[in-house]
Records
---
Amino acid sequence: MKQKILITTLATMAVSLAVAQEPADTTAANSPAITAESVKVDTSGTMKLSLKDAQSYAVEHNYTMQNASLDVQKAEAAKWQSLSTMLPQISASVDYTNMLGYKMNFQGMQIAMNPYLTLGAQVAVAFSGAQVIGWQISKMSVEMSEISKKKSEQDIRDQVKSLYYSALVMEETVALLDKNLENMNKLLESTQNAVKVGVSEQIDADKLQVQVLTMQTTISSTKRSLEMIYNAMRLQLGSDVNTKIELTQTIDDLLNIEVATKLLTEDFDINKNYDYQLLEQTTDIYKKQVTLAKWNFAPSLTVHYSYTKKKYIGDAGFDMTPPNMFGASLSIPIASSSNRWFKHKEAKISLLEQQNTVENTTNALLVQHSQLRYNLASAFESYEAQKQNTEVTQRVFDKTSEKYQQGVASSLDVTNAGTNLISAQSSYVQALMELVTAQIELEKLLNNDNNQ
């Protein structure tokens, strides 16, 4: 029962990591196709992935990552859109007018109003301090989008890493169960032979038969859970559900206790944390919002120049329109029934709230760092203890099995030894995953590039 609970927990955790991010629309423009350029693919179409290959492939093809890149492009477009409002705006027009033969009576003279074309061009420039602040805010938005993109990449790499480890751990679990099943089958066969010659009772063989069937059911359940983890990995990689994946590294290749324990002594530079960087950028934007509210009290200037030319169709007509015109207007806000003042007050209050949030988050991150170090240290100690426990329990099971075959131990002794072995292996697998999870979480908080 404990083994089944652990298997379900591992599979659920792995799938939860994958579905935590919603896949983007697969019809998005310029979405990179699934190719074999960055990974090895054999003739059967199986993707052979090391951990680094899987992370790099996911960063390139994951739909959430693609959307993060598009968000940066949108922010860039918004920045230049904001800048363009401070640049000259040029327009041109062509108008056709026909008064249908009307003649104007001017001091007894009949003046024909002939059809004409009006050609015009206008250049206008509007400038205010609010536009400058708006452009600065849009630049900060680009920087925030860049940080969010880096955070998305970090999340994807961590999710892939966790899934990669989960798959390896689940495969190791299957291997352990297969070995246990092989031993139990040997004992069952030996017991059945002993029953035939009258040395053992049928009840002993029946007990071992039930244990074998239970082991087979557990193995089947574990393999289904393993497939769930691979499906979650396919989702992270942005690959087809039918894509076959082969992991080229083992737990022993990846699990570096020295690197994990070294994290316990690393200083926490909070400025490297992406969540904190986003908070700082948001605070700067709030400060600009306060400045922007102040500029609502300042005047704004608009300068324009226009050129107009009439082109009569037929005989020349009466034209009193000046061809060149220049103008400037200065808009000075005087009273708004305290509307602008309250907007400024609201912006200042929002800034104070944000500063409180930054202070609270800073303290929370420092506490989290302390907790994650504690979690990693505890996970390491548990891993070492459970590893030794598994080795001892395996030796006990082997010895008990040997005694049973010699007639010294009973079938109950074998059953108990087998149950203890499965329990020890389950505890070991759980401790291993807790160690990996604790390491990933601390690496993410520290944002150490060497740990990716």
Note: The chain has a mean pLDDT of 83.
---
Amino acid sequence: MKNKLTIFILVGMVLGILSGYLYSKFASKEEIEWFASHVILLSDIFLRLIKMIIGPLVLSTLAVGIAKLGDIKAVGRIGLKTIGWFIGATIISLSLGLILINFFEPGVGLKGVALPGADAAIDVVKDTFPLKTFINHLIPENIFSALSSHKEILQIVVFSIFFGIATAAIGEKGQPVIKALDSLAHIMLKITNYVMGFAPFAVFGAIAATVAKNGLDILFIYSKFIGEFYFGLLLLWIILIALGSAFVKKRIWTLLKYIREPLMIAFSTASSESAYPKLLNQLERFGCRDRISSFVLPLGYSFNLDGSMMYMTFGSIFIAQMYGIHLSFVEQVTMLLTLMITSKGIAGVPRASLVVVAATISSFGIPEAGIALLLPIDQFLDMGRSATNVVGNAMATVAVSKMEGELDS
């Protein structure tokens, strides 16, 4: 059956919601903790399998793609187009979030949620993201160390670019290496197909654990905020898809069909990283040449997280509204620019969006403890923003492929 994985993922989501809800309603606190801690292992196994293949997959596909481009001028040209798209998409995402949060004002008069004190402890590590931290995440000291950690994708990207350019530069002598890496890339994509077979179980585990621990009641308390955030994501999807359709016209519907499974994986596991291997595979099936998709996607997973961008403005202003703190237009624009800059240095940081919000709001007189207001629903919000990140990176890859004349019909 052609859509077998899609159907199994949907079944996993439904069973996860049902079993999690039943536990949250009828089980004791100890039983819920036991269930959640064990069922989440299914999701943990899947994510560890994904992390296992990401390093070799990025290195092999990107190095081969760069080597096939042939020269540093082509790399620079594609890089400029890619970064230009990313900056534009980031501005759109942050600005749309800022407009909607001020229009809806979900944090004004929200009942049923207690405000944490300014000195309350929060389970998020704040970081100011100095330039040195960004450079450390960018340039590897040891490529083998970077390959051993899924958190250092940028370091693998930088090494792969150098390796690919150097391999192309030595001409015929580099051909055996290119062929070997090309074979490795195909092997890693085959392993990806095997790993994806476990996705429905991971979906079940992630959803069941979340619903069991939080219950569905939390969704009703925060329903206004969640509903307006997802409405914002819907508008952002429309904008991103419209931008993509400007390049591929009516084929946009075919593209959406191809990326359906990566979208569902990202949404249900609340991890855009988990969808990366499948998304790379599906974009190549759509017609994006591997030398473009393997270049744009790894960069996108560090610099083009459109859903996370919108969440940062939504979350920051929502906390300010909850505390009754008024921010002027200039302050809000300054916050937007701050978020745009700081968010680019957080590749590999756990719960990155929350970390950036925590690092930013304190600069504007907003209690950092306000992050605690988002923690109960962060998993549900993360599901939407992770799926949106997949859409944004898919559209970026297709657009750059089309601009470079590297998109097969």
Note: The chain has a mean pLDDT of 85.
---
Amino acid sequence: MLEKRIINILRDIVGKEYVSTEKTDRICYSYDATQQQFYPDVIVRPADAEQISLILKMANAENIPVYPRGAGSGFTGGSVPTQGGIALVLTRLDRILRIDQDNLIAEVEPGVITASLQKAVEEVGLFYPPDPASLKFSTIGGNVAECAGGPRCVKYGVTKDYVLGMQVVTPQGDVIRTGGETMKGVVGYDLTKLMVGSEGTLGVITKIVLKLLPKPEAKKTMLVMFDSIDGAARTVSNIIRGKIIPTTLEFMDATALECVRQNADLDIPESARAVLIIEVDGDRELLERQAARILEIAAPLGVVHTSIAASDEESEQLWQVRRSVSPSLRKVNPDKYNEDICVPRSKLPDMIRAIEAISNNLGIPIVNFGHAGDGNIHVNIMVDRSIDGHEEKAEIAIREIFAKTLELGGTMSGEHGVGTSKAPYIPMELDSATVVYMKAIKRALDPKNILNPGKIFLEDL
């Protein structure tokens, strides 16, 4: 535990009511969606960059680890306090500072909930596209730290494509600005892109300038079921080759469909072995032509059923098929390892077949769904930790899945980051020279390694 004098310094900086060493609070900030658990020594909830600067300066002087945290919804242990220290909770920085309709930008603080920002900009006819599955509770700061994606990224890109600039408190307590409010800017190194996706290891983000788009006039949702994953994957490739970029191209394989059949009241034909949920947006007249062309492309590729939404309500019903998967998973087995590999979209069938073989060889269920438009597969390895050998089998499955992913030209993480859970596998994807350069950046910005230590790189810096 931290010395009493340290706790008093923190109370002087942010106010007594925003510092806690109570066990119940320490438990609340000890885990994320991975269910890894490490207790912080103290929870601190600052109000602004000035307070964060003072906290980091003190932490540097005292060699105390600091763990920035938003909603704690990450899937790789990125915010868990592995070495105790200070849990720096940023939820008080929750203001949308401005929405500039002339320049199509918004300035926000990191604690703003993603869905709240989307709602606010849509009320004035604008659009913030990144849409991670956690958007109703994850924060913009966490999205930036992890470079979050989501279903719409096939057309609109991921979080990094919308961050123009930010205010950052460095590990040594300096307050700096990166980027700006313009679409162009090439003065000096691009520190904005360096900070995006750095998982809270290089700085604490306190303000973010985001690019916005005009809100699309309308959208159209289609659900297409196929008799094989190959037909679904070929449809995806042919749609893109046909110069159509849908808003979303979500897929579910046979394992995911089986979960839905068994655990949700939805009518899914037995012959269906894969599903695509395809959504297009834009001008109404264009949507009708695009939808017709997409169905024409899919028709000869093993389609067994098609549904087209005629309203927003019907669109929600189609999406319910996809949303039914995650709640169904715990009925397969009580514990899961959630990986988010990404392969070239043409390699999707090869990857799914490889995962099926791994599942069969090890005798553990693996359920797959995700973003077919960019080859991002959410691989859910379902185990029961109470059964001897299940955890070991899961670890073998993860390593074999990563190895096949890399063999196919993919990456071990499309949008979840590295954190602690993928750190042991870094050498599989990054060569030693690349890792040396990354560690050099971390040492230069954080020489005492006090900001989110133990993440991305397990070994000493």
Note: The chain has four domains: 4-89, 96-214, 218-327, 332-424.
